[in-house]
Prior knowledge:
mainly beta; 7-stranded antiparallel sheet; 17 strands; CXXC_Zn-binding_euk; 0% helix; 5-stranded antiparallel sheet
Amino acid sequence: xxxxxxxxxxxxxxxxxxxxxxxxxxxxxxxxxxxHPKTIFIAEENWRTMKIRELxxxxxxxxxxxxxxxxxxxMGIVILEPENQFEFEEDFYxxxxxxxxxxxxxILSDRAVVTNVDGLILDAVSKQEEIFRNCSFDKRTLAExxxxxxxxxxLKFDIEVEQVQ
Length: 165
């Protein structure tokens, strides 16, 4: 299964967003539909190789592996940067805002269903190409000021988990 992590809302003066590919997720088992009792931290720099029980001698690599406490299903999860990014500066890639939606991350798993995402570290770039780092979003609003009288904001801010496959 493929899950797109999107930021949605009413964007004002924002060219693009970047999210650190490390955050917290809530999942449920894809086999028995049981909600995992703990929030899971996933990061692109963490890797674990696991043998697939059903396929002898086959190994796969994941960012995190979780076992269902109800049915023992092993759920491997991979985090990826979105494919539609563009380079803003050297080694600084942004996801574009398209129709008040910005795809900031992708999660792949053949056995887990992602239900929620939290703890995003978010950078934004204004249309004047000013970088706003570690933006905070409280009460469904993101608002930042560049101390030059220009602001960026996202009203009705929401983190959407969209299952696409």
